[in-house]
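R.M. (postdoc): so does anyone remember the format we settled on? I'll just put the structure tokens first.
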């Protein structure tokens, strides 16, 4: 899930899931329980969601969901915005950790034009 203010959402999710807490950052619950807790907090402000489990599938406009990006540590490609090595690979370009928001924004806009949102 891509959400606004992830730190605050995480803190609230910990409170909702406290009865399933196993220690530190671990919880004994299903993915569905975790997603529902986050949705309870965020309401309709989720920017992007793609969750696939045996019982729960969400994604883009009824089609098979694909991730926005993938990490690619074994590449010599350069970031599309600066000269450092890009490790976050989007459909068309690669970005460094400092510029991945540029790629994410482009990818969201591209998917909006295709009617995925």
């Amino acid at each position: 899930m891509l959400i606004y203010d992830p730190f605050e959402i995480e803190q609230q999710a910990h409170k909702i899931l406290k009865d399933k807490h196993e220690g530190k950052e671990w919880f004994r619950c299903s993915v569905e329980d975790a997603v529902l807790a986050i949705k309870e907090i965020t309401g309709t402000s989720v920017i992007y969601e793609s969750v696939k489990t045996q019982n729960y599938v969400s994604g883009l406009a009824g089609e098979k969901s694909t991730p926005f990006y993938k990490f690619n540590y074994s590449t010599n490609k350069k970031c599309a915005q600066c000269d450092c090595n890009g490790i976050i690979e989007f459909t068309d370009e690669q970005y460094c950790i400092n510029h991945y928001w540029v790629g994410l924004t482009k990818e969201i806009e591209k998917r909006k034009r295709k009617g995925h949102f």
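R.M.: ...and that's the designed sequence above, right after the tokens. Also worth knowing: The chain is about 30% helix and 15% strand. The two ends are 14 Å apart (CA to CA).
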